[in-house]
Protein: eEF1A lysine and N-terminal methyltransferase
Organism: Peucedramus taeniatus
Amino acid sequence: MELLPRSPAEFGSARYWDRFFRQCGQRPFEWYGAFPELCPVLHKYVRPRDKVLVVGCGNSELSEQMYDMGMCQDIVNIDVSDTVIRQMRERSASTRPKMSYLLMDMLQMDFPDAHFQVVLDKGTLDALLTNEEEATLAKVDQMFAEISRVLQVGGRYLCVSLAQAHVLKKAVEYFSQEGWVVRVHQVASRGDKQQFVLPVFVYVMTKFRKTPGSAAQILEICPEEQDRPMRVESAEGLVAAVKDRQHYALLCSQISKIPCREQISLDLCDKESRKPRYTLHVVDSPSVKPSRDNHFAIFIIPQGRETEWLFGTEEGRRQLAASAGFRRLLTVALHREQLYEGMAGIQAELSGKVMELAPPGLPAQQQVPFLSVGGDIGVRAVRHCGSSPLSGEFVVEDVKGDGTCYFRRLIFLQNRNVVQSEARLLASTPVPGQKKRRKDKKKPSLTEPPGAIDKSYLCCEHHKAMVAGLCLLGGPDTLPGELAVLVVGLGGGSLPLFVHDYFSQARVAVVEIDPSMLEVATRWFGFSQGDRMQVHVSDGLDYVAKLAAEAPAQYDAVMFDVDSKDLTVGMSCPPPAFVEKPFLQKVKTILKPEGVFVLNLVCRDARLKESVLSTLRAVFPLLYARRIHGEVNEILFCQAGPVGRHGPAELGARARALEGALRQPGRPWDSSYVLADMLQAVLVL
């Protein structure tokens, strides 16, 4: 039986609808939005004594169910199909005496002005507005004008719709310009047997008198039936908010049917601020054998640990899901701008929403576990928020790591998933974020001194590799007496501090373009200047160029650890200008003949990376690379002088000898930091 029209234009034809309902017979046909789903919204806007008009009623049971449930009984139903009007009269004549069915075109209604308190439309606008041609839009304007005419002031036009963008935009713009209040409800689905994947919405347009110079339009959205309305600034904003919910419904439908080959990510936003509150990743492990209790689990990533490899990368999350032993793992990252009431509060907040992301085949009433590291949500205390014209917005925060260690981090918010600088806090530092009485929620004072920094510990693996690269200068007996080192890029200052403290004869010059970073490093990361440590606030490009012209061959080592602010380039460290051949020639000029150039390279673009390596080879004949496990970082050691290539054995021997010299009695040394290990995986390029 063919019920769909041959062309969208037939939706406006009485002849089509007569044929449709003859073929349909007495069987009720609901396009979408069953009464149990619509009832909670209709109850808000339809009162028992209201006079209700249903336009384009068809043979839907909606009017009958409203009548039988006592929601309202003074209901007038109209339709252009004589066939369906006769069917519906026969169906309700003896049982619903106060309800009537009339053959009438909603574009030309016979009712007097202000005759109804409610006009109800279930799919009629969607059927009429099938395109945006001039003739169609004229019909829709006529429909809206007639609805406006027959509604009393204070009356409500309730339109049940799938909310296609052009349909919603037309309705919102028309009625908001008439001074009506427009509110859009998302209808909560009941169960999983839905004819349509897209959610159903109800537009509620409340009529007000249009007055000259009236107040700004009032547009609102209710994401779910129990939520209070949220104000939206424009019709475009309302359409965008609805589109977000449609995309979410499509996503839920997609992952409820098949395992996901790719990890799907989405943000859940705070209802008040509308800022992201949770970031979810759906990770499927089809290779895990199904059992009664391993279908689905939720993993709460402790605050401050979302940047770690295990939680912050696809490969890491895949490994986490496999080791957890669940066929689907939903990882949940917590955002620093939000407050959380412990694991129990997060579980209560997320329980309903995460079940919409459950895998296919999840048994009914299955208990879904919430997991975390150590059973808590971690600790994060924001110590300082700042902004600079060069680095944008940034935060300094203290977080609890794995075990009992606490760390201080610098995060640039334009790339919030990357830790810019990190330092370990000494055990004597008060535990950040320690629970206080509820009334004592003041933020840490920005005038209090920073916690004690463990300067002996290099948190970043790439910093460890960069220091180990100094072995290329020779063993402890052959290192220059006064080691001259230039570091471009200060960050929190951990790298230059370590070189300064452990190479007692080293003179370290640091170039930093952003004066705000010098202030952050000094105030929050224990950095200080002195006779052997000087910071020059300057553009690294200009500083090196000036040195090359005025004071060549003065550094034993030059280290680049500088990030790029241009996120559109496939290389986030360093900026492209720092690896162009003319500039690299200047770097070579300021190095001593046996000196070493150490570069932190972070490049995801394979072609760009090969181009950078080719340029480096053209300037520095000796090129070594040390890849950092689990990270994109690659440390490049470049030499141009009259030294031969070193094999792994020689580098290892140099590293062990140098480490022995650096480990002095009474001087703390991180036992996990073995210089030779850093150089074991060095590749000669």
In short: The two ends are 70 Å apart (CA to CA).
